[in-house]
Amino acid sequence: MTIKCQKIVGGHAVGDAIVTREPINFLTMVDSATGKISYQNHELFGRSMKGSVLVFPKAVGSSVGAYTIYSMKAASTAPVAIVCTEQADIITASGCAISNIPMVKITNGFAQVSFESELKLSIDSTNGVIVIMRNK
Q1: CATH label, 2-134, candidates 3.30.565.10, 3.50.30.10, 2.60.120.280, 1.10.10.10
Q2: Domain coordinates of the chain in residue numbers?
Q3: Which 3 state secondary structure label does DSSP give 4?
Q4: Are 104 and 125 in contact (CB under 8 A)?
Q5: pTM of the predicted model, to two decimals?
Q6: Selected catalytic residue, list 38, 48, 62, 63
Q7: What is the pLDDT of residues 45-89, one digit of tens each?
Q8: How far is residue 48 CA from its own chain's centroid?
Q9: Helix or strand (DSSP H, E) at 135
Q10: Concatenated DSSP letters for 7-68?
C-alpha cells in the first residue's frame, strides 16, 4: 500500500514501524544513549526507537528536544525516519534537519491508514511517498 505524505526533511529510509498515538517529549521521555522511551507512563515505555521508523502524532515540550534527536543520531540510537500523524512540529523538524533524518507528515489519508508496529515502512520524503509493507 502506498500513501502520500508531505516532505518536511528530505531523504529515504526503510525500517520497522514503532507506533504510538501519544506525543513524545524528547527531552524528558527519551534516553538518548539507548533510544528507549524512559517515561513509565508512555505506551512505548522501554521500547527502543533505534533503527525504526517512528510514527507518532507530534513532539511536545522543550525545544531542547531537537538536541535530543541530534544526540540520538550521534549515538546511533535514532530512528531512521519519522512520520508525524498530527502536526509537523518545530521540535521534531529541527531535530531531524540537523540530524539528516527523513521526516514526513501524513496528509488527509491518515484517517484511512492504520499504522501498526508489525509493519515495515519505506519513507521517500523527497517524493512524498510512504510504502507500507508487512514484515515477513
Answers
A1: 3.50.30.10
A2: 2-134
A3: strand
A4: yes
A5: 0.92
A6: 62
A7: 999 999 999 999 999 998 899 999 999 999 999 999 999 999 999
A8: 12
A9: none
A10: EEE--EEEEEEEE-SS-B-HHHHEETTTTEE--TTSTTBT-B-TTSEEEES-B-S-TTHHHH
Q: Report the alpha-carbon angle 116-120-126, nearest 5.
A: 110
What's 70-115 look like in SS3? HHHHHCCCCCCEEEECCCCCHHHHHHHHHHCCCEEEECHHHHHCCC
Length of the chain: 136
How much is the pLDDT for 113?
57
16 and 120 in contact (C-beta within 8 Å)? yes
Q: Cell 531512521 belongs to which residue? A: 80
The string of pLDDT tens digits covering residues 35-47 is 999 999 999 999 9
Q: How buried is 93 (Cβ within 10 angstroms: 0-12 exposed, 13-18 middle, 19+ buried)?
A: buried
Active site residue 62: yes
